[in-house]
Amino acid sequence: MFRFLVRRIIGALVILLIISAVTFMLYYAIPRDPARMACGKVCTKDLLEQVRQNLGISDPLPVQYWHWLEGIFAGRDYGGLGNCNAPCLGFSFTNREPVLGTIMDRLPTTISLALGAAFFFLIIGVGTGMIAAVKQGKAADKIASSFSLIGSSLQIYFVGYIAMFLMVQQLGIMDQPSYTPFTDNPVAWASGLLLPWLTLSIIFTANYTRMTRSQLVEQLSEDYVRTARAKGLSRRSVFFRFAWRGAMGPIVTIFGIDMGTLIGGAIITESVFSIQGIGRLALTAVDANDLPMLLGVTLVAAAAIVFFNIIVDAVYALIDPRIRLA
Amino acid sequence: MSFSRRNFLIATGVAAGASTVLSACSSGNAGGSGSNKAPSVDKAAAATIAVGTKADSTGPAPEVEGAVKGGTIYTLDQIDCDHLDPAQLYSSYEGAVSVPFLRGLTGYKVDAKGKVTLVGDLATDAGTMTDGGKTWAFTLKDNVKWQDGADVTIEDVRWTFERLFAKFVTQGPRYPQSWLIGGDKYKGPYEGKHLDSIEISGNTVTFRLKEGHSDFNFMLAMRGFSLVPKKHDTKEKYDKQPFSCGPYKIESRSIGKSMTLVRNTHWVADTDPIRNAYPDKFEMQFGFELQASTDRYIADAGNDQYTVSMFNEVAPTRMQQVLGNATLKKRVLTQVDTTCYYYAINTKRVPDVKVRQALNYAWPSKQAQQIRGGSSSSAIATTIISPLTPGHQDFDLYGKKTKPTGDPEKAKALLKEAGKVGQKVVIAFQQSDTAVKTAVAIKTALTKAGFDVVTKQVDKTSFYSQIGQLDNEYDLFAAGWGPDWPAGYAVIQPCFDSSQIADGGVNWPQLRNTGVDKAIAAATVEADPKKAAKMWGDLDRQIMELAAVVPDYNPIRNWMYGSKIGGIQYDAGNTCIAMTKLYRKA
Amino acid sequence: MTSTDQQPFLSVRDLKVHFSTEDGVVKAVDGLTFDLAKGKTLGIVGESGSGKSVTNLTILGLHDRERTAIDGEILLDGKELLTASERELEKLRGNKMSMIFQDALASLSPYHTIGKQIGETYRKHTGASKAEARARAIEMLKRVGIPQPDVRVDDYPHQFSGGMRQRAMIAMALVCDPELLIADEPTTALDVTVQAQIMDLLKDLQQEFGTAIIFITHDLGVIADIADDVLVMYGGRCVERGTKKEVLRAPQHPYTWGLLGSMPSLDGPVDVPLSPIPGSPPSLLNPPTGCRFHPRCTFTEKVTGGLCASAQPLLEITDGRGAACHLTADQRRDFFADFAATRSH
């Protein structure tokens, strides 16, 4: 396991390096000049050159990229803005805030959003999936399946606005979505994020219901499940210790992917609910041509996805001894 | 300015600061004639802005009728300010939200009827001009304090203008840098050198300019020229938390999320003719999409009743619902903007005036307006100077009002006359839904008039860089300009004077016309505001006769607010709601 | 032990197992009767779909109760299983009666160690501690001939070879010393050497514990090796019964002849071509009228009055011997003699 983790982490770093290089190249693939954005309304040649120097983009691209990498490992001096200690992701082109600081400021929001939503969609999704699997073909199964079908066809910007309109603005039974750090006030943290959590889980639950149901149905018809019953084990223990154990693998995989995506940034969700997480940051960075922020956010999003991939593989190996971590 | 920040970032070259005069179309008078009628630009009288006297420049600001002191007012906006260092501050949104804590030498005073006067803000009056506008003097008021209780000094005034020359200052307006004598060589005060053309003596500062500028005091009213205390100047870092000499100071900021303004106890109301400062506190919240804020205003629940937006307008998707409902519409401030969007014609590539005029005749103004969302979001423009900017003359050289869908026959006839039937026109447009649809409409109309139209999509992030290149390969492309201050100079000079032709410049048509240049020079130094206004209006006509651009539209803005917000007034100086006039209804 | 000579250890009477499907009722088992005494082995032969496996799953009560209609009775040591509660059955399964499945790889849980899977059964029925269960698992593995059982006990099924898995499966089935062992084609997937070892193992264990075994197979060679009695199933019914000797030496039913003809004879000449039974097993949804085998039977015209297609032949049992066929006893004798002649040439 240890060797596996070391190998995968090294692999992940290489992937992140490649992603950052590709992002950097893609950014400049279309003819654009970030200096133009930070150069007032009437932008003369001299002024533009000055902006380039201020932003640190007057060097050739490979040199710029090298400096950026250097910043991550050794830190970088940003003159008037001060020294930026390693790991330094630079300063935003637009508001000249340290990129890492901004990301760290937003990350807890996004993580809270993802974890809370996961709590709901896992419990609801897996729970209904289990019921549907046990009650195969019966009313409960049909209801669960149709709800999951409806759920999966809904879009967050549709459900989100309706939920806000109903729950917050009309009925007033839920708080206006907002983020309060858990450490400040756990109740406000939960009540502020409840609506986004529930809305996200409506969308995500469907997938888990379907997945859990089909996996369990498949597992329940496996020979070893029959063997377990032939040994005299009860239905319940066969269900949880054998069938569910077998069904977990694919669910964990999907969950890992979903978590990676959610932490990489629930762009639409965060926009709909006016929550300031990584997703919004990404959106603004793209909009504003803010290369350092774009690189930083991309890196964090990619790291989240890669990280959850490693976790998924490790968990999968724990669940299924046939998988060898090599 | 009328651009969203998004646009501004994409198009730094375009309108940033902007100003106009009359809130001719505030919700009050627009609501009477019909609940869903769009504000009409045509009837707006061309404005004049009076230059106030010393008495006008003396505080306190005229009371807002029925206003109550105290409480908290909230704001809901999409974006935070990228910059708060005045030297880096250009966008009108940043200008609008900084009114409570930034003060300059001059500023705009709005009275109860919405009439705007240029007055001295920190200066005792709107300045004294001598030597044909080449010398300007301002005297600092007594008893104006920074937030730490220290006096605002004349040293601070000189420091504020000298630091504009520092290397890190790249974002703000650059008029002083090019107007002041010796400005081309000066590198800022941080190495211990002063700029000789800014003289201080006693409580008076004197600026010496290379050429006469009769509207120098208007230019100084831009928020970018608010004062910075020498003692607390932290250069690049000053951008995050500027020092206040206004009625409020920044208590806390969470960049991108929120900013809280509380009272600056050292502010003296008697020194301030502009700001009323009724609420105790402003809680500004950022990160709300237009639709989110609009929905909250519609619901009008809890603290949202005491909320206003400085940036967010009514979401396009909610426009019908809001403007179609008399009750909701009461809580909307509708305002035609001073920005004029036009299609620049590259005069280097299309040198024949007749061809350019034919383009104007053939233009599908009405179709384009429909594509943008109809008459509630934009008004068709026929001139370059907006109807709300001093100097505007109401003319329509190419019959856009009489034939809003275009006049292909007339255009064809002109082309024939010029021997240019089948003239090839390359149109550059951005990759957006609206732009693509508009491009199709334009192509259809121009083709009908006998042009051979080629449309080219340009990535939106590099659009303005591309059209700003002198050797670009486009004949026609969308651009727009909002004046930095309410005068013809701010509209015409940057965009049509041949001296402004440069890579990255904003003379997009690359108009090089001696007649125009001469007329601009003359109008610039004209000391009589009335005469000057007439001269700028004539210039507008002169340029339109040369058909350097096809005027397209003036945007219409709709801001919504909570039911318990009082004192909603249009701040013509910042083309925004006047923050310091607001009060919290009991 | 209450089993007596009068009452066999396992007694199945007129068992009918019908599944309802979307297309109709599948008569998987349609009136099956047999007895099994302790220490004896009953071989059940038949093609796939003949109802062999269903019969045995029904004995364990592992059928889907909601979709299955069952009639008849199954008495294990005098206890009626079909009406027993799920809890009662749970107590019997793996304990008094247990089952070895055909595909050990699929039938063992891939997620648990061999030791755990064996020990689990033991703990369930004896309430033993984890340590005791582990010791028992090692003991069982040793008994079924797994080398280094104390090490291999912690292996997962995928770490075992095919033969070892089947042994582990047997160890698991025998961990509570069951009195009835149902072995559902336990050697089909194994190569001949391993197959022989497993068969020997079962025989040894039976000798040691006196277990009653039901051995399901489609391979008459295996039957010849292990069974005392043989039951031939076709289309959910028993078509022939008798002792091993009777059924293999003097089969009475054309289907049994077919089965014999489709397998190589160890003592006959090698160049005799094998003749698989023509046609395919009957549909249990719409079984043929009359004798279910008649569409594939080559002797139908020998029976007068088209009886084969219209009337079901009765299974008449005398002294545990009988076959369900319309051919007369003489006809059967003659036809089998002909068949045997072609085989020995």
Sequence of strands across the biggest β-sheet of chain C = 6-7-8-3-9-10-11
Work out the largest interface and the residue count of each chain: A-B, 50 and 56 residues
By DSSP (H or I, 4+ residues per run), the number of helices of chain A equals 13
Order of helices and strands of chain A: HHHHEEHHHHHHHHH
Largest sheet of chain C: 7 strands, mixed
- Indicate the CATH architecture of the largest domain in chain A: Orthogonal Bundle
Summarize the helices and strands and which ones pair or pack.
The complex is a heterotrimer of chains A (326), B (586) and C (345).
Chain A: H1 2-29, H2 34-37, H3 45-55, H4 61-74, E1 76-77, E2 83-84, H5 99-134, H6 139-153, H7 156-170, H8 186-220, H9 223-230, H10 235-265, H11 267-272, H12 278-287, H13 291-319
Antiparallel strand pairs in A: 1-2
Helix pairs in contact in A: 1-13, 5-6, 5-8, 5-10, 6-8, 7-8, 8-10, 9-10, 10-13, 12-13
Chain B: H1 5-10, H2 27-33, E1 50-51, E2 72-77, H3 92-98, E3 106-110, E4 116-120, E5 128-130, E6 135-139, H4 154-162, H5 175-179, E7 198-201, E8 204-208, H6 216-220, E9 248-254, E10 258-263, E11 281-286, H7 290-299, E12 307-308, H8 319-323, H9 326-329, E13 332-336, E14 340-345, H10 353-362, H11 365-372, E15 378-380, H12 408-418, E16 424-430, H13 433-448, E17 452-458, H14 463-467, E18 476-481, H15 488-496, H16 514-525, H17 529-545, E19 549-560, E20 565-566, E21 570-571, E22 576-577, E23 583-584
Parallel strand pairs in B: 1-4, 2-11, 2-12, 16-17, 16-18
Antiparallel strand pairs in B: 3-4, 5-6, 6-8, 7-8, 9-10, 10-11, 13-19, 14-18, 14-19, 15-19, 20-23, 21-22
Helix pairs in contact in B: 10-12, 11-13, 15-16, 15-17, 16-17
Chain C: E1 10-21, E2 24-36, E3 41-45, H1 52-60, E4 68-76, E5 79-80, H2 86-92, E6 97-100, H3 104-107, H4 114-126, H5 130-143, H6 149-152, H7 162-174, E7 180-184, H8 192-209, E8 212-217, H9 220-226, E9 229-234, E10 237-243, H10 244-249, H11 254-261, H12 307-310, E11 322-323, H13 329-344
Parallel strand pairs in C: 3-8, 3-9, 6-7, 7-8
Antiparallel strand pairs in C: 1-2, 1-4, 4-5, 9-10, 10-11
